[in-house]
Amino acid sequence: MSTGTIAVAVTRIRIALIVVGVLVIGLGGIVLLNDVNPARYLGIVLWFAGALVIHDGLIAPVVLGVHLLLRRAGRRIPVAVILIVQGALVVAALMTALVVPEILKQGIGSANPTILPLDYAGNLLRFYAGLALVTAASIAVVLLRSRTARRADAPGRSGADAA
Amino acid sequence: MTPRDAIAVAGRAMTAYRAALAAPERTARMAVVLGRLLGLAFLVCMGTGLYSHFLQDPLPWMVFPTRPVQLYQWTQGLHITAGIICFPLILGKLHVVYPQLFQTPPVRSFPHFLERASIALFVASSLVQITIGFINTVQWYQLFAFPFRQTHYALSFVVIGSLAVHIGVKLPVILRHWRTQPRKPVAATSGVTGRVHRWMDGSGTTSRRAFLATVGAGSAVVALTTAGQSFAPLQPLNLFAPRDPRVGPQGLPVNRTAEDAEVVQLAQSAGWTLSIVAGARRIVLDREALRELEQRTVDLPIACVEGWSRMATWTGVRLSDLLDLVEAPADARIRAVSLETNSSYGVSEIGPEFARDELTLVALELNGDELDIDHGYPARIISPGRPGVLQTKWLSRLEVIA
To answer: Model pTM?
Structure first.
């Protein structure tokens, strides 16, 4: 196939995807109109707007801020360590965002005791502790490795110089 | 300051903020890598979700498989687990493309406006879809003023349609970055962030791998610490799932208790009977009479739409045997009617593939003991490969649909 025919095929696929996509979105709209009471639409619209505002206006800028603070701290700390800490913070934040609603709902109470039966608050603390351990161990491994690498590097370089 | 000046200032501010957001992991290639995974997760959720939807509201021509008996347990466990993995994936994906939010000018042309509007719809519907799905599993309905099931179903089309539009719009970029490009010398991060990074740590070090590792770790952790409610081998890691499948009366969770269903008195009444009706033919059996029919014992999972499931041993009368008593046609649909009248789940329909399956029982016992009242005493339906909500509890009547 020549580049021209590929380009034509790609254009056709794009048009097909967009047309099908718009139709499927329309189908969703029809289902919504048929199955959901119009009095509830405002609630859905508010959730849509809320999702955009909370992510784009709150979560993303906060992530940027934390990232800059960590980098600032990183002037004296190896970049690898910063990256590990950053990753651990992201995982901790993710689990917090998912588990805190469970803890709150558990406090409110549920229809029966088989819903939310675990010790979510305790498990979250244990998870943080485990994550901290894994993070510390990873940092130790990285630091040891870089130290070994530096030590191995030094004679290697002198050897190369000698040759 | 004239409005024109104000717009110019705002435009420069957006450009500056966008530049400040430049980071090594924010590349088109990374957007493609995460986008593929997220798109796959969305398709898995859509497929398993539609399967669950049509099991509950089948179109007239639909016939469903009854084997393997764990089929629904797996598809719905996959639905819930893939749904929760969408959280780290979508947050990662949005992180990568976030600077695109601050394009200047915000709108270049009408097609560009449509593109941006479609992305706003895609992002908003996806975030709402996975969030209400998660909230539904913890049953915190007060958080949203709309019906969960209908909204989740309608939004699934909006999400998948938007995905198709998005792929259509971005196809050239996706194709260009589908495979890794031959490695070019790593360009130092540009813009304000680049300068800030170099000032802070003396390097523009790439953190693409660390970013991917973080998204991967997040996905693994959310999946492994919650999937135990659906997949028994992962039970020891179940720290955060909304259910522990071992917790409940007779070691099984419950969604609707006898008290919620307002059936406690009727279910415990000595005068309880099960009627089996086919047109003018009608048979009425009390518990003793049911006991005297041939008893069968089967192992079938109870699997909830909310994702939790557990295997159990059920004893009772084969539904097919009861239907033969009223000479029901082999291809007849059956309506199972509960004592429960205050909910739409008080009535379920059973297609012939399930009604005539040798494993489908009117169960009287669970794990060797009489059914607990919250599990449907005096009798309930249990059948292979169907959601728990259709396994009608506190059974009172079986009707052969003409």
So the answer is: 0.91
